[in-house]
Design a protein that fits this description.
By secondary structure, the protein is mostly helical. The protein has one domain. Helix content is 83%, strand content 0%. It is built from four helices and no strands. The chain has helices at residues 2-5, 10-36, 41-51, 53-67. The model has no long low-confidence stretch (mean pLDDT 88).
Length: 69
Amino acid sequence: MDLVTAYNGSLIRIGLYLFIFWPTVGYYVYSDAEKRGLGNPQLRGVTLGFLGILGLLIHLAMVQRQTGQ
């Protein structure tokens, strides 16, 4: 039980954050980059997925800047 309560539960929060948001955001970024024909969609999916919601916002900003909207 010490691992669960270690660092005031920070390890569990970080683990759940990565477990939930990394695959979700990573898959969205990968599929969107592949659909738009952007370079290296797998690398984009992994790196921006690791950042979670921040990575999603970065991806959306890059796409918006490329389309010129």
